[in-house]
Amino acid sequence: MKTPAGTLYLISREHVLLAAGFRNFASLLERMDDTEFSLGLKDVKKIPVITDLITDYFDGDLNAINGITVRQPGSEFLQSVWKSLRKVPAGKTWSYADLAKKIGSPAAVRAVGTACGRNLVAPIIPCHRIVKSDGAIGNYGYGVETKEFLLRHEGALE
User: Fold this and answer.
1) Is 116 a catalytic residue?
2) Using CA atoms, how far apart are residues 113 and 132, in angstroms rounded to an integer?
3) Where are the domains of the chain?
4) Could you read off the pLDDT of 43-100 as tens digits, one per residue?
5) Helix (H) or strand (E) holding 130
6) What CATH topology corresponds to 74-153?
7) Whole-model pTM?
8) Catalytic-labelled residue, pool 115, 127, 130, 150
């Protein structure tokens, strides 16, 4: 899917988004759970509901992506981080320490960072909204430029 931030690659099962990212399909497929492939893969130009909501997001409805159902494999800890990430409002940022506190594990700052890096459904699960405690932008699996674009688009950066 072409977006102002670059090509966004999407993998879904019905109306559930399983993977999304700005690199390529191969990078998503190698990180996915093998059980998702049991029904096979089909190339499509548009995924009903999902692509519409992503288009709405890039057209300015910053909350549109909240309506996308996602699923990715991971431990209870990872799931708690990803669930909390979806609570970071568009236009705001939290630090890794803030996120660790929100999930009830204030000492788990590094583990929270690792969970953000393992997020398979970016930018729908908005790990781009997490920054360093000193306010520095921090890293992003799809490049700092993409992270900055998304944060500017959402109004978190000028």
Assistant:
1) no
2) 10
3) 2-69, 74-153
4) 888 999 999 999 999 999 999 999 999 999 999 999 999 999 999 999 999 999 999 9
5) strand 130-131
6) Arc Repressor Mutant, subunit A (1.10.10)
7) 0.93
8) 127
